[in-house]
Write a structure and sequence with these properties.
Blueprint: E1 3-11, E2 19-27, E3 30-35, E4 43-46, E5 50-54, E6 56-61, H1 77-89, H2 94-111, E7 113-120, H3 123-133, E8 136-143, H4 149-169, E9 174-180, H5 188-201, E10 205-209, H6 213-223, H7 227-233, E11 241-245, H8 251-259, E12 263-266, H9 268-273, H10 282-288, E13 291-294, H11 307-322, H12 330-343, E14 360-364, H13 376-383, E15 389-394, E16 397-401, E17 404-405, H14 410-425
Parallel strand pairs: 1-4, 1-5, 6-7, 7-8, 8-9, 10-11, 11-12, 12-13
Antiparallel strand pairs: 1-2, 2-3, 5-14, 14-15, 15-16, 16-17
Helix pairs in contact: 2-3, 2-14, 7-8, 11-12, 11-13, 12-13
The structure holds zinc ion.
Zinc ion (ZN) binds near residues 60 and 208.
Length: about 425
């Protein structure tokens, strides 16, 4: 074995969702053995006093937006976009995306996310940051054409160039996807070209859908259909589609997501902070078989990348909205952030089982807010925070051990990110 983790309380997320005290052996980038009393070989990590769980999967974010964290809060959505976010984003350069992404990677390592989906621009620079971090990612260049044919050509060309770039990286930790922004910012031609590109290249599609009532009205006015109905009617939906938000959906739209095998990324913190008003109908989605995952969205609307917070918010906001505390129990919310997110990476990550990728985290249980241990799932879903993650292994590589980051120069990155952030918000 290259690495053996001894005596941890393991949230396996296997088929039976077992929680067991056991050892885990890693060879290369894979989990080679899960069982008690594994011989001490290779590098030994003492897991006693810790929970070992699969690394979390953040299925929707815009990593470089870490630079806009806390820059414009508590604003009405339209003026937030128009007066703050878009004008500032127009000043973001390649270097900013690089350092913003590195800052995001550090935050994810410290809070337990080993794999994520990202959609933004200057994605070549984001890819470089990911490569330096050792995290696993699926990256898409976010396309917006606003029915402008010239812009459409430029956006599709940028996506094509990014696909080539990722292909040439030959980095098994980095995949790419096609990312048309949303049905109210992309023409039908762009959506259909995206679908074709995804089919041709065998990659996934990321898109925002049904995030706000305004979006629903706009799409309805233009097409006579609600966003998901519209996407279904043009043949856009399929198993490769990963839709973010879905807070204003009808039961019919939920059934269309299920029929087409789509994945829905629920972003409870971002939705609630932006006062999107709706709430993703998770019980109906689960009933009809939609793959439900969790995302943080960007740091301009969240304002962090802590997926533990998302797990708790997801469960409690659903309970509150349904007047039913039995809705989305702890284990279910943990599934969203592990196994279900892992399906977006071919099911190779998201559980601690032999033959799966060695993506895992040790959560430090020797803390007042994590004692006593009655029920590990409840503890991880409702009491743990990102900052309790002590050690992270991703793709068999130790990225953080005993709270010490092994891969990046944390203080230097924080300084550079601060510099970039100050420059882009300067008038
Ligand atoms: Zn988003």
């Amino acid at each position: 074995m290259d690495i053996v983790i001894k005596n941890a309380l393991v949230l396996t997320q296997n088929q039976k969702r077992e929680v067991v005290r056991t050892d885990v052996g890693i060879e290369g980038n894979m989990i080679a053995q899960v069982g008690p009393n594994l011989p001490k070989s290779g590098y030994v990590i003492d897991g006693s006093g810790c929970a070992l769980m699969p690394g979390l999967v953040n299925a929707h974010t815009h990593l470089s937006m870490t630079l806009l964290r806390g820059f414009a809060d508590d604003m009405e959505l339209e003026s937030w976009w128009r007066t703050k976010i878009w004008p500032t984003e127009a000043k973001i350069k390649e270097e900013d995306c690089y350092y913003g992404a590195l800052l995001g990677c550090l935050e994810m390592i410290r809070s337990g996310t080993t794999a994520f989906f990202d959609m933004y621009f200057h994605m070549e620079y984001v890819a470089q940051a990911i490569a330096h971090s050792g995290l696993r990612a699926n990256l898409g260049y976010g396309m917006v054409d606003m029915w402008n044919a010239h812009k459409r050509v430029r956006e599709l060309r940028a996506t094509g160039e990014f696909l080539d770039y990722v292909r040439h990286l030959k980095n098994s930790m980095i995949e790419c996807s096609i990312a048309p922004h949303a049905p109210n910012t992309c023409s039908e031609e762009l959506l259909l070209a995206s679908k074709q590109l995804a089919e041709k290249n065998g990659c996934r599609i990321q898109i925002h859908a049904s995030e706000t009532r305004k979006e629903v009205y706009e799409v309805q006015k233009r097409t006579g259909k609600r966003p998901v109905e519209y996407l279904d009617s043009i043949g856009f939906l399929g198993e490769e589609c990963v839709l973010a938000h879905g807070v204003w959906l009808t039961k019919h739209e939920v059934s269309l997501l299920a029929k087409n095998g789509c994945t829905l990324v629920h972003n409870p913190v971002s939705n609630q902070k932006l006062a999107s008003g709706g709430i993703a109908p998770l019980p109906e989605m689960l009933q009809s078989g939609v793959n439900v995952t969790l995302g943080t969205d960007g740091c301009a609307s969240n304002n962090n990348l802590d997926l533990f917070e998302e797990i708790k918010f997801c469960a409690i906001s659903q309970k509150n909205a349904r007047w039913d505390p039995t809705v989305i129990p702890a284990g279910q919310a943990l599934d969203f952030a592990t196994v279900n997110g892992g399906k977006l990476f071919g099911g190779r990550t998201g559980s601690i089982e032999e033959g799966k990728l060695a993506d895992m985290i040790l959560v430090d249980l020797k803390k007042p807010h994590l004692a006593p241990v009655h029920n590990l799932k409840s503890l991880l879903a409702y009491s743990a925070r990102g900052g309790d993650v002590k050690t992270m292994i991703c793709g068999g590589k130790i990225l953080m051990e005993d709270y010490a980051i092994k891969v990046l120069d944390e203080q230097a990155i924080i300084l550079k990110a601060q510099e970039c952030a100050e420059r882009i918000v300067r008038k």
